[in-house]
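Assemble and predict.
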Amino acid sequence: MANPILSLFGHSPIKPLQNHMHTVVQCVELLTPFFQAVIKEDWEAVEATYNSIAEFEGQADDQKQDIRLHLPKSLFMPINRSDLIQLLSKQDKICNTAKDIAGIMLGRKQVIPKKIATDMTAYVKSAVAVAVEAKVVIDELDELIGSGFGGREIDRINRCITKLEKAEDKNDKRQITLRAKLHEIEADLPPIDAMFMYKTIEAIGNLADRAQSAGEQIQVIIAR
Amino acid sequence: MEVLNEYGQILLILAIIFGLFMAWGVGANDVANAMGTSVGSGAITLKQAIIIAMIFEFAGAYLAGGEVTATIRKGIIDPLALQGTPEYLVYGMLSALLAAGTWLLIASMLGWPVSTTHSIVGAIVGFAAVAISVDAVSWGKVGTIAASWIVSPLLAGTISYMLFRSVQRLILDTETPFENAKRYIPMYMFMVGFMITMVTLIKGLKHVFKDIGFSLNYFEMSLAAAAVGLVVSVVGSMMLARVKRNKDIESEDRFANVEKVFAVLMIFTACAMAFAHGSNDVANAVGPMAAAVSTIKSGAIATKSIMPTWILLVGGVGIVVGLVTYGYKVMATIGTKITELTPSRGFAAELGASATVVLASGIGLPISTTHTLVGAVLGVGLARGLAAINLRTVATIFTSWLITLPAGAILSIMFFYIFKAVFS
């Protein structure tokens, strides 16, 4: 790297960061087939899907490590370095949560009561949707730099963030409905199962929260 | 005196060989830096870059290289201090060429980013101050040159910053960036044509005009430059008209088509960059060679002598040979590795850098094209145009300065005493 012009250009962390988010979303999206398998009580499929989730999670971890290693303090970026590192760890937490949820379900071979199965599926899907909306926001990052932080691009990002917030809102509402339904039947369930059901619902809600928080980190990046 | 009579022929041949060696070094290293950004942004191919470099380096050297050459051959050293011993000037200039060339070779092998300009100035000041006398150096001029090394990257950075801001305002951050790119880019093309013509008219063709008894005042020169600028922008517009919008590639990157328009502009700024580089850096090889040759021929130090045209030709040929034998490899490396610099950024950096270098050439200040370009890229970065700039490079460049000046000086002092021992 002797050439001054060549060594002047550092590795842009933007594309790798977006690729990391893509891996995260691929991981999270597996929750939908995962829950379908759980509902069917097809434990072989559950385990196979869990393994795929764990694999994507591991891949995301590797990507995270790699991005951090290539982000020296001497890099001059239009984006604050610590804001970027924070975004990365927020992204990473989304798929960690997905893996935790799947891990507990598999470990306990937790059966989902038939009466809430449809609501559960919808709830999981709405959480995955939040992660997808967050990905859309993060996919705007390279265009934000491409436009040189133009006002129009910022408006565009703000519109994407509004959509993200709406998706999270939807997820919240589904959570309330699902909890109410679970509450109706909780007396019929073994107490520990009921407790873990509540825990699972909460964890899925957390996943959506974390996805929203990752997407909204872009606002911190824009505001300077 | 007798020395020059006795060994004049050998010294003359040595001057040409060392001059070619230095020019080769400039062509092998510096040209690639100046042109690599255009190749890297995908605006031109390697082959086109080499052709552009060959034509415009030569044109720049020939049309606008006179002032910097004059500074190097007679501005840094006070000729009066050497009146009695003209052979010392010949030894010194030969030593400076050999020292700077050797240092460039060593530094390239060790992988240090050194500047040809800094090497040659360090070498000339070194032999003059130590081997002759401290008074032999025009310290005022040297101070101005040193100051210009700080000012030039700053100026280039400022120009590039403003250029990129204008691109953001006029093109990127608008409802119809593609249409606006086509509308406003001819304006930047005009700037390129105007700038190069102006410097050529003021500095380069002065002697030609004088010979044929023709002269222009500044107003007439501006008019002529504006006319050329207009022609350039019309030609550019016709090239732009051929760029068609391909909506398919916009799903991946909304600015993909806009960048295609900027790529056309970058052909023009690449020419400007090659011209600017030729106008400034050819002097590093040609200046000392010219000083040595004119002293050998006249047997005395002539302050008023006109530089023979063939010397500029030797410099131009050396640069082109350096480019073709080695420089293209460096250019290919830079070209394939710089992917972050898109045409909308690359043009701003190149135009800012070439404007600064051409200005310095006009004033007769030898500056480093590479450092000026680095300053220009930083300017684009400050305008939030680049995703990641490695600031450590700036520190490395600063360190290489501090090493290059004494290294060039020490080597040239050494060579000076060797020449003195051999010939006197």
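Residues 28 and 345 of chain B are 25 Å apart (CA to CA).
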